[in-house]
Structures are given as C-alpha cells and as structure tokens.
Amino acid sequence: MLSNRTLLILTTALAPALWGTTYLTTTMFLPVGRPLLAATLRALPAGLLLLLICRQLPRGEWWWKSWVLGILNIGAFFALLFIAAYRLPGGVAAIVGGIQPLVVALLASRVLGEKLTPRVVVAGMTGVLGVGLITLQAQARLDALGVLAAVGGTFSMATGIVLSKKWGQPAAPLTTTAWQLVTGGLTLLIVMLAVEGLPAALTPSNLGGYAYLSIVGTAFAYVMWFRGVALLPASTTAFLGLFSPVVAILLGWAVAGEDFTAPQMLGIFLVLGSITAAIAAKRAKAPANDAKLAQQDSL
C-alpha cells in the first residue's frame, strides 16, 4: 500500500503534469495574440467557481497576503506564462522552468531554514542540464521576449511557493486556492482591459480551450498543488514542477509533430532522475511526516 507521503507526492505531481498541456492548448485552440485574455479567463472563472464552493472570504491580514500570493502565483505568473507560450515553441517555454527548483531551494534555505544539501544542488543542476538538452535541440528560433517572460514567470512562482510555505494556510487548500485565483484574476482583468481590450468574438474552439485550462488546468490542478505546498518541503514541491516541461515536450512531439531527438530523450531521463533524487533526499523524514499527513483533510 502506498504511504500517505507517496500519495501526496503523486497528487501534487498531477498539477505540473496538467500545466504541461497549457502550451499545446494555447497554440491549438486559443486566439492568436491574446496572452492576457488567456491568463484572465484561466484564473478568474476558476477562482469564482472555487469561491462558490467554499463560501469563505479571507480575514484580517489574509486580505493582503492573498493578494500578494495571488499576483506571484497567479497574476504575474499566468501573464508571463502565456506571453512565453505565444512566443516560444511548445516545449521550450516550459523548459525554462527547469531553473525553478534551484531558485526555490536557495530561497527556502534563506527564508524557511530548509537545508540546502549537496544532493539537492546536484539534483537541481541535473534538472537544468536535462532541460537544457531539450531546449538546445528545439527546432525553432528562440524569441528573446518569450525567454525573458518564461524566466520572469519562473522567478515569480518560485517566490510565491516560498512565501506560501512561510505564511502557511489559514484554511483548507481549496479555500486558499480560491482566494489566490480571484485576487490574481482580478488583477489580470484590470491589466487585460487596459492593454488588450475585449475580443470581438470567440469561437467554440476558443471557449473549449479556455474552459479546459480554467477548470482542469487551474481549479483542479492548483488545489492539488497548494495542498502539496502546505505539506511538503518547498524544494520537493519545486522539483515536482519539472514534470511540466516533460509533459509539454512529449505532447509537442506526439500531437503537434515537433521534432524529438535522442538528446531530448536523454534530457527527459535526466529530469526524471533529478526529481527522484530530490524526493529521496527527504525520505528520511517521511515516517514522521506520514503521521502528520494522515491527519490532514485532502481538500
């Protein structure tokens, strides 16, 4: 039987796996040149849906904390993510996120007191090497603005992960996820109306793409993600995020017909190896953590 910790890791890993489908969905179903619209329609409807379910608003300092986390984890991250998705080939935008585990591990060592072990550093560097192999083999010209957006999104979410861990969660993951999605989505709505404006029309294909990203790729995925952020070490959660580029590059090959080479395959194995090593580095604490996890509500 799987331990509570293993089940938690698997359910948390579902989130980045679903995020890896964002790039293919964007290029195949969403209207061209509307990154802020895509970010807004992904975040705000999902947040309002979860808020209707939980029916609980923030209290006290969690009004401003939810807004800060909503901007870091949702608002800024989604905007930069979709800019990267529109300007980079399918897998490449996600690949830049390979540096996130190292960023999170460094921030967590300074802010949370998590030990930055040589094993975690080596695993992080291995992950960067793996995603680098995939990136260097991409058969497409890399756009400078797209790369900067991807890097900015990585640092934004890395900061959000560490602050989420530092501040804790005053309510169930479903509730705190709703707060962040609504605050981040409202911020995106203001920016979108000022910069892009509303589209003249949306096709059924566009609406289907937005619905998938909002309900599956956001509402469901982020509840799983923030539950993992609350209960797992920050660096472990960050390494699970590397599943996103793996899924993105495999979908790009299988569905969009993007080239897939032997070095890219090696890169994927290195990424998976880095995730395994990072999780194993925390295994010694698993028995104690399992007792704690057994008392937690899954939602």
SSE order, as H and E? Answer: HHHHHHHHHHHHHH
Strand portion, in percent?
under 5%
Please give the radius of gyration in angstroms. 18 Å
Instruction: Indicate the mean pLDDT.
Output: 84
Overall description:
The longest helix is centred in the C-terminal third of the chain and has 28 residues, at 204-231. It is built from 14 helices and no strands. It has one domain (4-293). The chain has helices at residues 4-19, 22-29, 35-54, 62-87, 90-95, 100-111, 118-136, 144-167, 173-195, 204-231, 234-240, 243-254, 262-281, 286-293. It has 299 residues and is an all-alpha fold.
Helices and strands in order:
Layout: H1 4-19, H2 22-29, H3 35-54, H4 62-87, H5 90-95, H6 100-111, H7 118-136, H8 144-167, H9 173-195, H10 204-231, H11 234-240, H12 243-254, H13 262-281, H14 286-293
Helix pairs in contact: 1-10, 1-12, 2-10, 3-4, 3-9, 3-10, 4-8, 4-9, 6-8, 6-11, 7-13, 9-10, 11-13
Short structural description:
The chain is an all-alpha fold and 299 residues long. The protein is built from 14 helices and no strands.
Structure characteristics:
299 residues, mainly alpha, 14 helices
